[in-house]
Structures are given as C-alpha cells and as structure tokens.
C-alpha cells in the first residue's frame, strides 16, 4: 500500500515536471510573471478529455491540447507586448477568461475518462507503465527544450529575459520573443494538463487552481537542490523540484496533515526555498558571533 502510493506520487512528480518546465521558461528564462498557467493547465485537460469522451483519438487530443495552450500563451503575449498591459495583469485576464472557455469546451464542470482509451493505456499495451511513459515524455521534452534554448532564437529569448535593451539594440524584436516564450511555455503546461487528465481519469474545470504556485515551488526547490550552473542542469532542477515537491506533500499527508493544508505546505516550501540563502547567512553570522564571544577572556 505504501509502495504503490509512493510510486503514484513519483508518477505525479514526473507528469507535473512537464508543467514545471513551462513555468521555468517564463519565470526564469523570460522573467515574466505568467499566471496564465492556472488557466492553460485545465485548458489542455479539457481539450484532451472532450475529444476522448466524444470517441476521438487520444493522440489527436494531446496534439490539440498543445495547440490550445500555445494559443492561450499567445493571447497573454499580445495583451502585454502589443496592448501594453502589464505582464501580471495580462496573465490574470487570460486566466480568468479561460475558466469560461474551459467550461464551454467541456460542456460541464467535469468529464470522466473511465474505460476510455488514453495514450497511457495505449502505451501500456506494449509494457510501458505510467512512470516509464512519463519518463520518456519528460526526457524528450527536456532535450527538445534544451536544444531550442541553445539555438540562435533561443539565445535571443534568453537575452530578452536578462535585459530587453541589449537584444533590442541588436535588432531583435523583444515583443516577438515574448510571444514565442509565452506560447511555448503554455503549450508545455497544456501538454502536462492533458496527460494529467488521462492519468487521473477525469478532467475538472477547477484542476488548475494553484498550478502556477506548485510550478514555481518546483522550480525554486529544484534550483535550491541542483546548484550546478548550466542550462541543462537548470531544466533538470525543475524536474527534480517537481518530484521533491510531490514527495513533500506525500510526506506531509502521511504525517497526518489534512488535504486542505496543501496550500499551506506549498507556501512554506516556497518561503523556505526563497529564504534559504538569507537563513544560511544569518546562521553563519550567529556562529561567527558565538565563536567571537567564546574568544573574549572573562575577568
């Protein structure tokens, strides 16, 4: 029982790792506070679930979910880059609109996928368990993202996040880079949503609430754990952080905390990860002060 629950937690960490890569792309690479994630995650789940429930091909559903997520990110980018609405407000507006869009797509608040063909079941016929399938998808996604970020366009995207003025002075359209980054990020988030819906066996209109916080927690925790510099290590850190985050939640629930405390757990994890360097500095100052006090001779 414990082992199966632990395996299920790791599987969740793997599939949500794709979402963490999308969050990493906007928050770390593009330096954009994108809250569209809370809407694009259930959007991917809604599109895939609707197609599967209507008897469509689950692979086609995943592909359309990616396209829908890309379109959601593009809308946020247009609001920010073209209409000059702040990045934070642009994401909030798109996220709010997507709630109604997701309800319109699904036709109701919840779509069950029990006894429906899914990509996970299809690969299961060939001996791939869910965690094996998620590892394959996650590795492919990571390699493609790393390769893209090392291309000329990827360098321009990273430069836009570091300092907009520098690539703009070299003739790079920073607005286009924002549109590209947001579209790619939310495409990954929607892909994760589509796979999560098929893994859990249902899609719900409220399943995206808190997704951006969980993704940001995964990125921050991963950055704290994987301190090696380099692009490949940074994306690996996001994946590791996603798994550790899910394991932390699993451990908290095993200790007796209620599921309603999950948001509190997430907030505490983010605070600890963000304040880690400051706490370490305070602790080192305390130790130095203690040693200095010990060296003072007593009368």
The low-confidence parts are none
Give the termini separation: 64 Å
* Widest β-sheet, arrangement of strands: 1-2
Number of helices: 12
Biggest sheet overview: 2 strands, antiparallel
Q: What's the number of extended β-strand segments?
A: 2
Specify the CATH class. Answer: Mainly Alpha
Shape call = globular
Instruction: Indicate the mean pLDDT.
Output: 89
**Order of helical and strand elements:** HHHHEHHHHHEHHH
State the CATH topology.
Answer: ABC transporter involved in vitamin B12 uptake, BtuC
Structure at a glance:
This protein has 299 residues and is mostly helical.
Q: What report would you give on this structure?
A:
This protein has 299 residues and is mainly alpha-helical. The protein has helices at residues 2-29, 37-53, 58-82, 87-106, 119-124, 130-149, 152-162, 165-169, 174-200, 211-225, 231-254, 262-295, and strands at 110-112, 202-204. A two-stranded antiparallel ribbon has the order 1-2. Helix 1 packs parallel to helix 6 and helix 10 runs parallel beside helix 12 (262-295).
